[in-house]
Amino acid sequence: MNAARLFVGAACVALSACGGAQSHARSFSTDWEDDGGASIEAVRVRLAGARATLAADVAVGVAGNSDKLVGLPLGGGAKWTFAHAIETRPVIAGGVVVSQGAGEVFAVDAQTGARLWARPAAGLVLRGAGDDGTYTVVTLGSTGGSGSTLLALDRQGNVVQKVETERSLGAPAVIKGLAFVPWGQQYLSVYDIDKGAEIGRALVRGKVSQALASGGGVYFGEVELFRFDEAIKTSSRGGATKLPIPKRELPGATALMRSPEERVGPVAMAVDKTRMYVRPGAIDAPAALDSSRLYANYFRLTMAFDTTTSGLAWVHSSAVDVIGGAAASGGFALCDEQGKVEILDATTGATTAELAMGEPLKSCVVSADGLRPGAAKSPALPLSAQLSAALTSNDPELVAAQALLMRELATSPDEGATRTLIDIASNPRSPPTLVAEARKALPARRNGARAMIEALGRHYDFLRDVRSAPPVGPIAQALSAMKDKSAAAALASHLVDPADTDDDVKQTTAALIEIGDAPQVGALKEFFGLYRASAEGEELSQAAVNAGHALLKFGGPEGRKVVDAALADAMTGAMVKSRLAAVEQSLDAEKALARDKAKAGEKSKEDAGKKPAK
User: Fold this and answer.
1) pLDDT at 352 over 90
2) pTM score, two decimals?
């Protein structure tokens, strides 16, 4: 007896399903030639106008010592619990929840938690489940080999059909008594539950391990997501309709769907906290994502990206890690490790509902197939404020996501973004990488001058609990580029502040050359007098040169006198002296050129006046 027959026999005994159900050898056979899409097109024609049953809107958590399920209907209804050992993460399929533990696979009603059925499943692992309201189809994999079993059960738990195969079956979807079963990473077979036979197959040019029902439609894929529609007949030639899921930078090990061959235990891991989510748009419209949104969560942060621009739409901060979620029509539902469920608006990220399971969770799965978020409980904060909350959270786990959000913040035209960048750069508790990113972004800002000037008004003062200086240098660069002369006094106040870095001082003096004026001459003279001879290093020496440059530019005769005395003094630093002498020569040349142009202009006017009238 060969190994395949041994597997079939063992599974038959374990699942107690060998009575009326049959094992169909031709199903999922590799002895198949591409039929040019004929069989799968026949299935589509048969289902024309049919809609998949919407899955229950519910959050289901594994709680306790992985010994019970906790369910919370999202559209209203009482919380329920179901005591049972849980060894495999539950799956929400249609109106049922399927899970595994204590040597059996079992199902409960998704809305009430009432037990529906259980079947022995020793040596097998739950891979996926689909349900159409009449049948539940479960796929299980062998723990000791590559074989798989497909079970089709009615609501009473009777095994209507059973297929055992050496192929690797993925997670199924069910519509109108037809099970869509991906397998072999490239095939999508349609299995008629009533007939007990495979009636259609598509060869897909893409990785296929999961089928799912969403919004009444059927989709399949793993890394990409394909739609079952009129283009399915061309799938072997790469013509299947593919949802436009943008490829963009996301933090962490984000994935659209996990391979069913990867056993998913009852306790959420890091991969469960760094997920990507999408919801297909209307099935009778061109392929698109609902609300033009791509969602991603990274521990305590949930982000939404606009698929039309690839930009960040909003970011939501939770108090604890998010361990489950689902994209809804016009919104997103998240579930955290404390059992809190929040419904967020797709457009703004505003919270529309808050629900509670009432206890901590080991893991959580969410279905929001028919959910329609209501009105927001309160107006959404501006994106800059959302980013500020996410970026000022001092949590080492969030640094990777915060780096991405920082880059999004840097390109935001909102004036509030400027204030947030300043706050991050000024906060002594900000991670050094974020401080560096904020300082790098600030010089390019062309708005938020008021926030910059306000920040310059803060000076390090231990006694008054001001523990850090603002990012003076980057602010100086931005204000100089904006030609904002109203900032000159605030900048000058930092010339001799010991809390500022040498680069801050260099950038401040450079900015004062552009936007300074007579009122800043006193502060410049003080700084120049302190550092023209004692400056050490490139940055401080250049700062002294800049100060002298500013004195020459708008310091009048007194400023020129101070600079000339420094150039004649042997104590003045060699670098400062040589560079400042070059600056003075350049300015004198510019003034001479300006005088010559002025004289030439006067002469032209005189000559024009001497010409005889015609």
Assistant:
1) yes
2) 0.84
